[in-house]
Write a structure and sequence with these properties.
- There is one protein chain.
- This protein has four helices and five strands.
- It has about 170 residues and is of the alpha+beta class.
- The chain has two domains: about 40 residues, no CATH class; about 90 residues, K homology (KH) domain (GMP Synthetase, Chain A, domain 3), CATH 3.30.300.
- The termini are far apart.
């Protein structure tokens, strides 16, 4: 059995390089499934095989439900990252946070600016037994540190490219 440990506090050390330094990279591929539509019937698989989920359009959007959806996956990633960042910062400050939790609600909504779609994240942190002023400072620091919060506030570098069919191992 593998013993799990939190990441090292050395991750809190500031990087001083000129270019982005990739620490970890992963790839998830979504295929269309039975309906030929990634959101309605897709399958999401990671390159290492650890993620393998069936995507289904939620009932609220006219689908059958019965599977996960992009908003749930985003909320899970955001909550996990924020909790991890919170835990690292608390450990550095010597603040034990047993029973802590991070809940992220993601709304998929219509955008009044362009008539299309927008995501809104609502993040709620529970730090039982921690003095309010200490908890608030810890949360403010976590907001500056967590890359998901940074992405939500500042945007993300996103490079979209068409891959030629033969480059993906497909025939023309």
């Amino acid at each position: 059995m593998v013993t799990l440990h939190p990441p090292p506090l050395s991750l809190l050390e500031r990087y001083r390089g000129r270019d982005t330094q990739t620490l970890y990279s992963t790839t998830v591929t979504v295929t269309g499934g039975d309906a030929g539509h990634g959101r309605a019937s897709g399958v999401a698989r990671s390159d290492d095989g650890n993620l393998d989920v069936h995507l289904r359009l939620p009932q609220a959007l006219g689908g059958p439900g019965g599977g996960t959806n992009p908003e749930q996956l985003f909320a899970a990633g955001y909550a996990a990252c924020f909790h991890g960042a919170l835990s690292l910062l608390a450990a550095r400050e010597g603040i034990p946070i047993p029973g802590s939790s991070v809940e992220v609600k993601v709304d998929f909504s219509r955008d009044p600016m362009d008539g299309l779609f927008v995501l809104t994240a609502h993040t709620r942190i529970r730090l039982p037994g921690i003095e309010k002023s200490v908890a608030e400072e810890l949360i403010r620091n976590t907001e500056r540190f967590c890359p998901y919060t940074k992405m939500a506030r500042q945007g993300i570098t996103n490079i979209v490219a068409l891959v030629p069919a033969d480059a993906a191992g497909e025939s023309k």
